[in-house]
Design goal:
elongated, mainly alpha, 4 helices, 72 residues, 0% strand
């Protein structure tokens, strides 16, 4: 559905892995424990692509568009 693109984005940016089965989760965790630099790089990639204000920005843009909020 609508979240499919998010999975691709996160995986392609190196911020996470696609682990649809418990075995995939376990193997990913094992690899991150065996090679902490991989975990650190994934964490750094998460910080790089983070947009913590995105939902607020989208809501403000929509509200402005329908005339119920005017950003300053």
């Amino acid at each position: 559905g609508q979240e499919d693109g998010n999975v691709d984005f996160v995986v392609n940016e190196g911020a996470g892995v696609w682990a649809p089965e418990p075995e995939h989760v376990v193997s990913t965790l094992q690899s991150w424990l065996a090679a902490p630099e991989l975990r650190w790089q994934a964490a750094a990639n998460c910080r790089r692509i983070a947009r913590p204000q995105a939902a607020r920005d989208i809501a403000a843009a929509l509200a402005a568009r329908v005339g119920i909020f005017r950003p300053e």
